[in-house]
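Re: duplicated header lines in exported structure tokens

Our pipeline writes sequence and tokens for each protein into one text file. With two proteins the header for the second block appears twice in some exports. Here is an export where it did not happen, for reference. First protein block:
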Amino acid sequence: MKIVMDIRDAQLERVGVAVYCQNIIREFVAARDEKFEFVFLASNEMPKLSLELNKHSIVYIAPSSSSSLVRKVKWYWCLPRLLKEINADLYFGPFLRLPLSPYPCKTIFTLHDAASITEGQLVGNLLQKLKNKFFTSNWIHNVDGIICISKYCQDEFSDIFGKSIQERSTVIYHGLPYELNEPYSVAIEDEIKVIGKYTQKKHYLINIGTVYPKKNIERLIEAFSQIKTLDVDLLICGSAGVNSQSIYTAPERYGIEGSVHFLGRVDTEELKVLLKNATAFVFPSLYEGFGIPILEAFAMEVPVISSNATCLPEIAGDSALFFNPDSSEEISRAIDLILSDAQLAEELILKGKKRVSGFSWSKSAELHKKFFIEVHNRPS
């Protein structure tokens, strides 16, 4: 089966969609499965991907995310012709994008979350929200198969666009990113150097993710100002996102600017050190489609304190201490509990190690290929 896959999102850094693309591509290529041949559509502006392609190929012709609207429209209008020339059996979009004209093969895309049509701080204005909903509805009702990254994601889209989505979709979880799956072997003196770059305190909490409103960092900072144990720092790892200005001024407003550190994007090796040595990982997000950072914390054997919103209880199971993300008091109580109860922290670490073992990219890739075959064989 010849599968054409759009891989432009693989170039993004530490964003959920990019982590998904990078890891699933690696599995598809490494599997050497004779039943599948992949043609990867990449942007001319993308760095060349270092993949041992085997029999697969990369075509650098797609517009990048920063290309003009005219070029993007032209691309999606012409894509069906390209699929026909390639003689594709199936087109797979790991993000919500489909050709604008009739396509000559079966199509599948992955739904990650409905934030662009439900989350006000990400949409911008009502007109943009309506436009996003219109195109999403059109794509969803014309695609042959849909992959959802969590049951919550599947149910949410079904509530918005109708129950027929359940019949054409499947839930396939992400795996643990490869870099976090390797044995941890950092020398103590190197750990001390890395940690010393960001904090001088023995204990610290850590949060990972793009800094913008739906991540609820401002309320986390408010909650952190209320904890009883003050000899602890809060490290926030992630690049600035949209509408994030008030988040960066929050520590000063709450009088804890000396204890909250915005690290920006941290490279993977340093991030592993910071996670491994953290007192706890705190994830106060208001909205997630999956929540990969929770798996990363489990893998690095850190107790997890998490929001109970959206898909997070589904992903974390009984391996995290949950709180209501709308309540700074609940968040601060959960932090205080972890800081004061070593036995609870150890129990969560053990549960997290067991929980994360059930998430793997090899398993995810096999389920993808099984779904490809199922959709391809469905009557047109």
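Second protein block, exported in the same file:
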Amino acid sequence: MPKLSTQRFKFLYCNALWGARCGKTARRVLLGAGSTRVKPRLPSTNHNINHEWLQENIPMNERIMKQFLKSGFIYKGNLFPTDRGSPQGGAISSLYANMALDGIEKLIQDKYHRNSKGKIENHYRAKTKVNIIRYADDFVITADTKEIAEEVKNLVSQFLETRGLTLSEEKTVITHIDNGFDFLGWTFRKFKGKLIIKPSKSSIKALVRKCATIILKEGKATSQSDLIR
């Protein structure tokens, strides 16, 4: 079902979206990556999506969608209702999350890239340097100044509110590229005018822990050749 739905709804996706799409991998995001960055974080997209908004805006059979959204969940043998959000790890939850966030690029284009006649011009884009790169519900927005970044943050917050979503004030960061930021397991930072991209400290620690678990705990009785494979 996700594969069929992705083909049907492909026209809704913005060009800045990389997550949960065929041929759009985390590695390719680096090819699309102003001096100031807004690193928004959503508490949990799947858990908080507004059902009414989805049913009114997603071009899908309403009966099937309602059955999926209102199916509830079972915990310790008891059935609980689902009044908002979609099941974490559900068959089309990632698709719903992507489609709920679809439109952020157009929001930015309308505000910062269009001239008085409504046409997109590179002159306006270069003036504010406001651009967005999104991988599923994780995204980065660039801006030329901190003031513009704050303005974009408020604009995105209003956009998300109608969909039942909010930005995490604790995890949403506005930072200068010289100070760097983490995105999709990588650290992006400018040093002496040169952009440096390297694995983030947290992703390296996670890899070391995983290797330690496989080698020292799970693989104690495993041969070296089997571990390498």
